[in-house]
Amino acid sequence: MRIILLGPPGSGKGTQAQLLVQRYGIVQLSTGEMLRAAVAAGTPVGLKAKEIMAGGDLVPDEIVVGIISDRIDQPDAKNGFILDGFPRTVPQAEALDELLKHKHLKLDAVIELRVNESALLNRVETRVAQMRERGEEVRVDDTPEVLTKRLASYRSQTEPLIHYYSERRKLSTIDGMMAIDEVTRAIHRLLLALGAVEPKTHARSAAKTAPAKKAKAGRKAAVKPAKTTKKAAKSPKKAAKKAVMGTGKATKKTAKMKVAKKTAKKALKKGAKKAAKKVTKKRAKR
């Protein structure tokens, strides 16, 4: 996924960009961070950018576009990237379109974080006060005075991008005043609807789980035939026993029948003898 996050200074673009990086395994291309790194390194470009940023003005396009072009060519940006703080103007957006076209890349989404400017000023004032209480150094471009100037620049130069990307059917707007996790969920739903690939962490865990499940299924399948074989081995023995028992029972029944027949024959013979004797006695009396 190649995404642009739009919104005024303090709208939470940087925070959401970091969360998207962790979830989707893509890189964050923050011109502000890259320029601040150049300032910290004291390079010629950094020194020039330091003066411009301290005044709340925008860095020239030729510097920013060159940084973006080089960064996109790096291997870790092949899976996608998030542009945070760029483009800031319509000419920069047009330059980005040409750059992506030249590199045969496509922009997938432009997400606007819409916020209340007065609420932003209150946030910055609170943050600066807390940093000073802790004894931390406050960035020269992170004060209410500079923010007021930057908001004015955003309205005049960057807000036209909303119309620019809306015309190209790339723009989606999210309420940036919601809680951080709510904004994150809204962005996630939007990206899924646009066909974003599932998070890398989920895909990896699913890939690890699947072979394990298959292995268990294989082991179960291997065990079941063994049990079946045992049963099959036992069944002939049982059948043989039943056959022998059945034969024994049949033999006993046959023996009993023979005894009964013999007893009946004996009874008949005795009865016949008695009857003959009676007849002989009667004849003798006569």
TrEMBL record:
<comment type="function">
    <text>Catalyzes the reversible transfer of the terminal phosphate group between ATP and AMP. Plays an important role in cellular energy homeostasis and in adenine nucleotide metabolism.</text>
</comment>
<comment type="subunit">
    <text>Monomer.</text>
</comment>
<keyword id="KW-0067">ATP-binding</keyword>
<feature type="binding site">
    <location>
        <position position="36"/>
    </location>
    <ligand>
        <name>AMP</name>
    </ligand>
</feature>
<comment type="pathway">
    <text>Purine metabolism; AMP biosynthesis via salvage pathway; AMP from ADP: step 1/1.</text>
</comment>
<feature type="binding site">
    <location>
        <position position="150"/>
    </location>
    <ligand>
        <name>AMP</name>
    </ligand>
</feature>
<feature type="binding site">
    <location>
        <position position="134"/>
    </location>
    <ligand>
        <name>ATP</name>
    </ligand>
</feature>
<keyword id="KW-0545">Nucleotide biosynthesis</keyword>
<feature type="binding site">
    <location>
        <begin position="85"/>
        <end position="88"/>
    </location>
    <ligand>
        <name>AMP</name>
    </ligand>
</feature>
<dbReference type="GO" id="GO:0005737">
    <property type="term" value="C:cytoplasm"/>
</dbReference>
<keyword id="KW-0808">Transferase</keyword>
<dbReference type="InterPro" id="IPR000850">
    <property type="entry name" value="Adenylat/UMP-CMP_kin"/>
</dbReference>
<dbReference type="GO" id="GO:0004017">
    <property type="term" value="F:AMP kinase activity"/>
</dbReference>
<dbReference type="InterPro" id="IPR027417">
    <property type="entry name" value="P-loop_NTPase"/>
</dbReference>
<feature type="binding site">
    <location>
        <begin position="10"/>
        <end position="15"/>
    </location>
    <ligand>
        <name>ATP</name>
    </ligand>
</feature>
<feature type="compositionally biased region" description="Basic residues">
    <location>
        <begin position="211"/>
        <end position="241"/>
    </location>
</feature>
<feature type="binding site">
    <location>
        <begin position="57"/>
        <end position="59"/>
    </location>
    <ligand>
        <name>AMP</name>
    </ligand>
</feature>
<feature type="region of interest" description="Disordered">
    <location>
        <begin position="202"/>
        <end position="286"/>
    </location>
</feature>
<feature type="compositionally biased region" description="Basic residues">
    <location>
        <begin position="250"/>
        <end position="286"/>
    </location>
</feature>
<comment type="similarity">
    <text>Belongs to the adenylate kinase family.</text>
</comment>
<feature type="binding site">
    <location>
        <position position="139"/>
    </location>
    <ligand>
        <name>AMP</name>
    </ligand>
</feature>
<protein>
    <recommendedName>
        <fullName>Adenylate kinase</fullName>
        <ecNumber>2.7.4.3</ecNumber>
    </recommendedName>
</protein>
<dbReference type="Pfam" id="PF00406">
    <property type="entry name" value="ADK"/>
</dbReference>
<feature type="binding site">
    <location>
        <position position="92"/>
    </location>
    <ligand>
        <name>AMP</name>
    </ligand>
</feature>
<dbReference type="InterPro" id="IPR006259">
    <property type="entry name" value="Adenyl_kin_sub"/>
</dbReference>
<feature type="binding site">
    <location>
        <position position="178"/>
    </location>
    <ligand>
        <name>ATP</name>
    </ligand>
</feature>
<keyword id="KW-0547">Nucleotide-binding</keyword>
<dbReference type="GO" id="GO:0044209">
    <property type="term" value="P:AMP salvage"/>
</dbReference>
<dbReference type="GO" id="GO:0005524">
    <property type="term" value="F:ATP binding"/>
</dbReference>
<keyword id="KW-0963">Cytoplasm</keyword>
<feature type="binding site">
    <location>
        <position position="31"/>
    </location>
    <ligand>
        <name>AMP</name>
    </ligand>
</feature>
<feature type="region of interest" description="NMP">
    <location>
        <begin position="30"/>
        <end position="59"/>
    </location>
</feature>
<keyword id="KW-0418">Kinase</keyword>
<dbReference type="InterPro" id="IPR033690">
    <property type="entry name" value="Adenylat_kinase_CS"/>
</dbReference>
